[in-house]
Specification:
With 112 residues, the chain is an alpha+beta fold. It has a single domain, classed as Alpha-Beta Plaits. Strand 3 and strand 4 form a beta hairpin. It is elongated and about 60 Å long. It starts with a strand and ends in a 17-residue tail after the last strand.
Length: 112
């Protein structure tokens, strides 16, 4: 099993969710996060004054998938979140040693 963490633009979340649902992945956790990479934030105008915004709003989503569909999940997330502009996001993949469904006690792939 792998944990996929994807950081995407907020308005792309619905696209990513639908793409993952199409792959049969229905469980995920999302967080509202802020950060920056190469884009280094942006400028905003407020009451005539210009401000540098260093941390840009993003969404981080996490989902655990079986090893067999990791590449497919990465592909659909990439396609669904891509705008072609700087700041589209990143995807990280981490190993999961074990998973347990608390309600039933199921473990491993059965728990996801």
């Amino acid at each position: 099993m792998k944990l996929i963490k994807a950081i995407v633009k907020p308005h792309m979340l619905d696209n990513v969710k639908e793409a993952l649902n199409g792959l049969g992945i229905s469980g995920m956790t999302t967080y509202e996060v802020k950060g920056f990479g190469r884009q280094k934030g942006h400028h905003e105008l407020y009451r005539g004054a210009e401000y540098q915004i260093d941390f840009v709003p993003k969404i981080m989503l996490e989902t655990v998938v079986p090893d067999e569909i990791v590449a497919q999940a990465i592909g659909v997330i990439s396609e669904a979140a891509k705008t072609g502009k700087i700041g589209d996001g990143k995807i990280f993949v981490l190993d999961i040693i074990e998973a347990v469904r608390i309600r039933t006690g199921e473990t491993g792939n059965d728990s996801i």
